[in-house]
Amino acid sequence: MRSRIERLDHRIILGLIEQGATVLDLGCGDGSLLKLLAQGKGVMGQGIELDDQEIFRCVEKGVFALHGDLDSGLEQYKDKSFDYVILNQSIQQVRNVEAVISDALRVGKKVIVGVPNFANYRARLQLFFGGRAPVTKTLPYRWFETPNIRSFSLKDFERFCADRGIAIEKAHYLRGLTRVLLMPNLFAESGIFLIKR
Fold first, then answer.
1. Is the separation of the CB atoms in 39 and 4 below 8 Å?
2. pLDDT for res 20
């Protein structure tokens, strides 16, 4: 199974989740991660996605996904009703990060958050030398077309958790298909955090 997984973030998330766990994927996109988790770990999963076209892709993959806006909350779910809640590359697109993370921690026993690092050296160099908002392989949108409404670094997310008493159990830092071990806030393009309260 591992050799067929093209995305390192998906491979890491697969490794963080136990066999047969229950999973809620917030901002599940086309359902690729949920399908991988069902096949690789036998998870019972469902997704929430705002984009109707992505929900159709979920259905084509046999993934159960509901239409919903993460900023509207998760009041339909009971406390700790899932083993894991996943927010992979989605919190930078929500309006109320604090409420979404708090709701995820309420609904899930553990939460996996994948975030882009807007402070990696490529973005810094483009901003410093070019004087323009950076466009990189991992941040491919120009400023006027980006779905991202939050720009933050790995350090920012770590501080956010520390200030709110949220424990980071594991952190993985990535650049493309490799892990970053040295100075991740500078060299990593993204991070994956396993958090709980």
1. no
2. 97
